[in-house]
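Forum: Protein Structure Q&A
Topic: Joint prediction for protein chains with partners

I've read a bunch of threads here and the consensus seems to be that you should model interacting components together rather than docking separate models afterwards. I'd like to see that in practice. Below is the full input, 706 residues plus whatever partners are listed. Could one of the regulars post the assembled result?
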Amino acid sequence: MAATRMPNAVLQADQDQSDPVSPQSTDRAAWERTTLASSLDRLPRRQESFTTLSGLPIADLYTPDDVKGIDPLKDIGFPGEYPYTRGVHATMHRARPWTIRQVAGFGTAEDTNGRYKYLLDHGETGLSTDFDLPTLLGRDSDHPMGLPEIGRIGVAVDTLEDVRRLMADIPLDQVSTSYTINASAFVLIGMYEAVAKDQGVADNLITGTCQNDILKEYTAQNEYIYPPRDAVRLVVDTMEYAAKTMPRYNPVSVSGYHIREAGATAVQELAFTLGAGHCYVTEAMKRGIPADQVAPRVSFFWDIHNDFFEEICKLRAARRLWARMMRDWVGARDPRSWLMRAHSQTAGVSLTAQQPDNNIARTAIQALAAILGGTQSLHTNSKDEAYQIPSEGAIKIAVRTQQILALENRVADIIDPLAGSYYVENLTTRLEEEAEALLRQVLDRGGMVESIEDGFIQRQIADSSAAYQQALDEKREFMVGVNVHVDEDEELPFEHFELDPGMAERQIKRTRSIRRMRNQAETAAALKEVRAAAVNKENTMPAVSRAIRADATVGEICDVMREVYGEYSPPLVY
Amino acid sequence: MKRPLRVVVAKPGLDGHDRGAKIIARAFRDAGFEVIYTGIFQTSEMIVRTVLEEDADILGLSILSGSHMHFAEEICGALREQAAREVLVIMGGILPPRDIPKVKEAGVAEVFGPGTPTARIVEYVREWQGAA
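Posted by a regular:
Agreed with the consensus. Here's the joint model:
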């Protein structure tokens, strides 16, 4: 088609340089028989077959035949309208570019608060917090297992006072903050609420997000405490509670990121993530909470990996499938329940410690995919994140990458520009269909919890991870600088991030002093209430909130739940 | 005939990022070794106990959280005191280069960083076995 619309002069010039007889194929089969076949004789394909990073076959090219079953109105539609393939908002990035949200966290609350201010000073528009392992696992800093890990991979939080210092001078009605925490999320949500209210922020102005997606901990990241069923109950507690006390807060950010980083394919990431979201909403419904009360505040978090088109299609497919799941599967009526609002992060697992400057290029391209896929917020990895907490210099390049995309490349100026591409629409549909089929397999087995308890999901991910490693070992997949284009004798660079050596000691001292100074009777009574709520299967959050105010620590509150629910020990699948 | 090598693969500490540990466990299993994967959340004492109870030849530690010095010293120290014979301790994960001599001094025989093909680790273990 395009050729016939070209001015005659140009067409003439082309013909002069090519074969005297230039066939004009009327369909793909004809093109394959004639033009392609004769070309392949001279120039064979460079590999036998092509697939996406997730293993879906890629044909030579896509044509109108490949989008025949896709209805431009019903399946693609318009942004801000069901099924939201083209985006959750009518205006998308033309009204407000995506939020630049870099995750940060290390050392004590004061250390991380300093990093927040650095990021905001450099044009970041939202905050995101990583917590250290003891906090993530509901242990106080002075717990014997906590000691070697204090402040290493995130900020240490034991008490409400720590969160106060973490959020110092950050106006919680203006800057939205995300907390990356899961097993002990219910405590941190309570602490965040308390600090926001102390700042004088009205309930309906408190913004923010908590990851609080416990299911993927059992399948991917492994930061769980309690058995899955009880842990899901706690998630639903927070959803019900936040809907009442902080209606604009997102209590759950269902995360494909960790599933993908653990080695899953894009299809598995879609299926198990949307499956988790579905599980939380339906578990709430089983407790008599209407879907429309909780689903509008469920948000999502995706990994943006190396396959550029597949990742764009993944976000489009996720929106369409989630909208259908919420509207048709669970019967949500409020259109806000149908929206798959997304935070994205470039793929940490794609970064290499070797030739780390290459990570800047990887991250920029992944960021572009996230934007073209219609993300609402974005974290771009820093080039040194393969081996350390990012240095300020590296994090600045990562933020600047997003600013270049927003301000120089014009990619924020157009909504869903790849819609209508034969390949993109075809791949979007294939991803949606494959993900739905896998998700239905999970549901047929009893659901997400059952498929975790019997190791089905873990095995799926472990198999994909092993297959990818084998492909790397056999050089069927490439990592530049690692298994191809290697710099021999490369000295791994380290602008090493040093944690303050006195940090752990200061943290423990503060926690112990707060434990000593508080009103012991009040704290004990509050913890007793938490236990009673858990035992009686009531919503635990009001009691947790009171315990936080009584200076109970993260470890103490989580210990109460440990006594009631027990601790989880998983099937070992590898 | 020699019995197959017995390998304990362990994740010390609170970090749950076990993609590497599982990949190595699978690679060792595929290489014909007997593999005991401890799972996550292991203390030094738990790991040492597993090595002794399983009469393991090799201990593979996977650490990504930055706590490698702490665990290298604790675990290698305890093995030296308690094990009846030499246990080969190898480590995988993300370590700053300047910490590598330090963990080796603590008793770790070799460190395998990100991007190491699994075949190279298997080969290393076989060479050690041949030399022993």
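The two ends of chain A are 52 Å apart (CA to CA).
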